[in-house]
Specification:
Elements (H helix, E strand, L loop, with lengths): L3 E6 L3 H12 L4 E4 L11 E4 L2 E4 L10 H6 L7 E3 L3 E5 L4 E5 L5 H13 L1 H16 L2 H6 L5 H7 L4 H16 L8 H14 L2 E3 L5 H8 L6 E2 L4 E5 L2 E4 L6 E8 L3 H7 L8 E11 L9 E4 L7 E4 H4 L9 E8 L5 H12 L7 E13 L12 E3 L2 E3 L9 H20 L1
Parallel strand pairs: 1-2, 1-12, 2-9, 6-14, 12-19
Antiparallel strand pairs: 3-4, 5-8, 6-7, 10-11, 11-12, 13-16, 13-17, 14-15, 15-16, 18-19
Helix pairs in contact: 1-9, 1-13, 3-4, 4-8, 6-8
Bound molecules: flavin-adenine dinucleotide.
The site of flavin-adenine dinucleotide has 34 residues, from helix 1, strand 17 and helix 13.
């Protein structure tokens, strides 16, 4: 007798979504997670009353797959302003479309006056991406993101000062070689629904998904050592668990050690620093981009986005750069220039260096990799779709459909 119909390995967004859909199909599921909490790369630490997401990350409430599973508002979302402040070499662009004060409106007008063709080009890109069906975006012939922005006639200075630091933070790909379809799909979601964090940290997303998993399916602190034809060996038991199907829902690197013949993805990394400060250096929930120094940093006062991210009377600043080699001393001094204030009193709360943050998605990336990879063996995760929470959730649903179909035969 099997221990379950399906064993899912890994309780990140993909494994959680797969479990929810498998249970909805009436299957008995065991969800094995190696660490002490669900969430995978979407986790939040609490340090001295500060909420620290493990690397700066945001939720796009317009992700269609998120909405399929739950009401994003149930996560008590706190929104970033619609737009960014971008520091260029000569100019500082305040492109905050949600601000209504005179200064910001004048700044938007100044951008349109100085770079009218860019204003038109970005408007055209936005109109197209928000109105066309996502299937048409997925069906297009892709190129690299940098080339695609140029194809939309966005000028080199605006790419360098605004798009490169913005997208380097999203794709963790400073060269902008990421598949252009992802640019359009993400731009669509950004513009349609904005960006947010749950008031209690990004961890609330996987926790909400885990809340949809019924019974006692979830086993934490259970690392899977090997998988073979429906038999799953855990690191701490000599007796394998048995199932009719096994879904490997780990990150791509772990999947390559569990699934014969599976190649590990190439990764993009990121480093995020969190600073505790007495006074917020910017009193707005806005992403501030460094398009001038070459560090391609994004920074935000997280406690302006969600006051719950800092204990009373303090503020929390995040600063992130692509890659995992940045030095905090250089970042601290650049933050002083960007926020136009002294950072000598800023207290470093934590540093997260994450070499394996996102699987790279080059222009030849396959958007939909097969769910079934062997006898009774299936794989899901962001590395099988797109490198995002949306991609992980989609792949979880796809794998569940494939398993349910095969087991019904
Ligand atoms: C710093 C950072 C910022 C990001 N920002 C964003 C963002 O703003 N928006 C966005 O959409 N996406 C973002 N992402 C990407 C997003 O977090 C991932 O795409 C998503 O978490 C992938 O989910 P997954 O379930 O495929 O894999 P994971 O989240 O990696 O989950 C895999 C799970 O498998 C478990 N596991 C691994 N090996 C084993 C084993 N042998 N046995 C048992 N369990 C195992 C792991 O512990 C983990 O819980 C970011 C990622 C990082 C790191």
């Amino acid at each position: 007798m099997e221990d379950a119909d399906v064993i899912v390995v890994g309780a990140g967004p993909a494994g959680l979504a797969a479990t929810v859909h498998l249970q909805a199909a009436g299957l008995r599921v065991l969800l094995l997670e190696g660490s002490d909490e669900v969430g995978g790369r979407v986790r939040t630490d609490v340090v001295d009353g500060f909420l620290l997401d493990r690397g700066f990350q945001v939720l796009l409430p317009a992700y269609p797959e998120l909405r399929r599973l739950l009401d994003p508002q149930s996560l008590d979302l706190r929104f970033f302003s619609r737009g960014v402040v971008a520091q260029g070499s000569d100019d500082r662009w305040d492109l905050d479309f949600s601000a209504r004060d005179r200064e910001t409106l004048l700044s938007l007008a100044r951008f349109a006056a100085k770079r009218p063709l860019d204003a038109l080009a970005v408007g055209a890109l936005t109109l197209r991406d928000t109105t066309v069906a996502p299937n048409r975006i997925r069906a297009a012939v892709p190129t690299e993101t940098g080339r695609e922005l140029a194809r939309w006639r966005i000028s080199r200075p605006t790419i360098e000062e605004v798009f490169r630091p913005f997208l380097a933070g999203v794709f963790l790909d400073p060269e902008l070689t990421t598949n252009s379809k992802l640019l359009h799909l993400l731009w669509r979601c950004f513009v349609r629904g904005g960006a947010a964090v749950p008031a209690d940290g990004m961890r609330m997303l996987p926790r909400a998904l885990a809340g949809l998993v019924t019974d006692d399916a979830l086993r934490l602190s259970t690392t899977v050592a090997s998988v073979d034809r429906g038999a799953v060996r855990t690191a701490d038991s000599a007796v394998p668990l048995q199932a009719r199907a096994v879904v490997v829902a780990t990150d791509g690197a772990a999947a390559s050690t569990l699934v014969p013949g599976m190649r590990a993805p190439e990764w993009s990394g990121v480093t995020t620093w969190y600073f505790a400060v007495d006074e917020p250096p910017l009193r707005r929930p806005t992403l501030l981009l460094d398009g001038a120094s070459g560090s391609l940093m994004n920074t935000a006062v997280m406690s302006e986005v969600a006051p719950t991210y800092a204990p009373g009377g303090r503020a929390l600043v995040e600063a992130s750069v692509p890659g995992d080699t940045g030095a905090v001393s250089a970042i601290r001094s650049r933050l002083g220039e960007l926020y136009r204030t002294s950072t000598s009193g800023w207290e470093l709360v934590a540093e997260y260096r994450i070499p394996h943050a996102l699987p790279r998605m080059k222009s030849n990336h396959v958007f939909t990799s097969p769910a079934k990879v062997g006898t009774q063996l299936y794989v899901c995760g962001d590395h099988r779709d797109t490198s995002s929470i949306q991609g992980a959730l989609v792949s979880g649903r796809r794998v569940a459909a494939a398993v349910a179909r095969d087991l019904a035969r």
